[in-house]
Write a structure and sequence with these properties.
- The chain has about 450 residues and is mainly alpha-helical.
- About 35% of the residues lie in helices and about 10% in strands.
Length: about 450
């Protein structure tokens, strides 16, 4: 009773005097995004949600603002259809703090202590990872809006509207082997069922579908031309590197007829999956849906992999062996919690290539200090340095500096030696990737 009385008196005193006492978050080392934001926000006299809406992002000018505006008069048919699919749901709340925290808590509940997003023993590492994460998704969701890309303007678009523009469609074959030199025409009149985007997969991207329900895609694995991605593990894994047997039998590799309807034998397993048959990945959803979506703008095969992983590892018990991918993509565009789960999957559990680490593995767990800054995360997300520093000085690096500053840190280059040369952690190049990943 004495302790309770003291606590109440302390609260009354603070309220009456309007004083804010600084909390030493570093010594407390709060675990997870909610605890971190609550601690930091308390030093600004705000709740974590207020800090999210007013400091880290701007609810007035960003945070799903595209879906709160009207399309321009010259919008393409595909843009109109995508807006109708996406923007009539959770208008303005899709990227909310509540949705973000709900997704993080759901991941933690499902995976327990093995889910370690922002849960390092080193508070500085947590803040660097958080700044990398926020900078990446901020840049991914602003588009090329003048004056943006360097402050609290991220999370503006929930999907890549520009990829459905009047000059962005392509005249690909139904299952293209090569996508070069195929710029389309009459883009403005094409709807989602016929608009082929730049992300439309080549015929070397193959999945399995239910023989009796062809719209349902098998959730266990996908072939993306480089290998066989197994989606039953977290992180996902590749167990058959190189060109799988089914890919090698396609026309671009051998001059033989394609046999997608043949018995589905998984080369690395040597077993047959009854009730399924092969299908080109690009035939599983309307072509206009091959665009970037959500807070990390999952595109193409990344969305297909998240769909499989989600149904295999996260959402359902018992495991769902097949489901409608297009319905899932629509849900992803409409449900902010699902979108945040996709972003966290990409960060925590997605790999890009045989035996490659995840983003989280490098940024939070690498023993190399130079591997905790924005240059390596840019290389791992983009496969290059695009939008790292734009001509006007904005971009991923500027976002990173912004978020670090809000967390009370400065952006400081960490030197490292590679190939007999000295580089630093803020230089985006092939050397940082080789040093950190390979």
């Amino acid at each position: 009773m004495k302790k309770l009385t003291y606590s109440l008196l302390s609260i009354t005193f603070l309220s009456a005097s309007n004083l804010v006492y600084a909390v030493d978050c570093a010594s407390q080392n709060p675990q997870g995004p909610q605890a971190i934001l609550e601690c930091i926000a308390s030093n600004h006299g705000q709740t974590a949600e207020e800090y999210w809406n007013n400091i880290l992002f701007s609810s007035a000018s960003a945070l799903d603002k595209f879906c709160q505006t009207s399309l321009s008069d010259n919008a393409t048919q595909a843009q109109k259809e995508m807006y109708a699919v996406s923007c009539n749901f959770q208008k303005g709340s899709y990227f909310s703090y509540a949705n973000f925290i709900a997704a993080d808590q759901a991941m933690r509940l499902k995976f327990g202590n093995s889910y370690t997003f922002l849960r390092s023993n080193d508070y500085t590492i947590n803040l660097k990872e958080f700044s990398n994460f926020l900078a990446t998704l901020a840049q991914e969701t602003t588009g090329m809006i003048p004056g943006m890309k360097n402050q609290n303007d991220g999370l503006y678009f929930r999907y890549e509207n520009g990829a459905l523009g009047s000059t962005s469609c392509y005249d690909y074959a139904s299952n293209p082997t090569d996508k070069s030199g195929t710029t389309g025409s009459n883009c403005a009149s094409l709807g989602l069922s016929s608009y082929k985007t730049g992300y439309y997969p080549k015929s070397s991207y193959v999945v399995a579908v239910d023989s009796t329900t062809p719209n349902n895609v098998y959730t266990g694995y996908v072939f993306d031309g480089d290998g066989e991605y197994m989606l039953t593990t977290s992180p996902v894994s590749i167990i058959f590197p190189g060109i799988p047997d089914i890919i090698a039998s396609l026309p671009q590799y051998k001059d033989v007829a394609t046999q997608l309807a043949a018995p589905l034998v998984v080369g690395s397993w040597g077993t047959t999956l009854n009730g399924f048959q092969w299908q080109y990945m690009n035939q599983t959803i309307d072509p206009g849906y091959w665009i970037g979506m959500g807070n990390l703008q999952l595109t193409g095969d990344s969305m297909t992999k998240f769909f499989g992983w989600y149904n295999q590892s996260f959402a359902n018990t018992p495991v769902v062996s097949s489901a409608n991918l297009q319905n899932f993509v629509k849900q992803y565009l409409q449900d902010g919690v699902l979108a945040w789960e996709g972003g966290l999957w990409y960060w925590m559990y997605r790999i890009n290539g045989y035996q490659n680490p995840t983003l989280h593995d490098i940024i939070a767990n690498s023993p190399k200090a130079a591997c905790h800054d924005i240059a390596i995360s840019t290389m791992m997300v983009n496969g290059g340095c695009n939008n790292y520093i734009n001509e006007d000085g904005t971009g991923r690096k500027a976002y990173y500096q912004f978020f670090l500053g809000k967390f009370g840190m400065t952006m400081t280059a960490v030197p490292y030696e590679y190939g007999g040369q000295t580089y630093n952690s803020l230089q985006c190049n092939d050397q940082i990737y080789a040093y950190c990943v390979k």
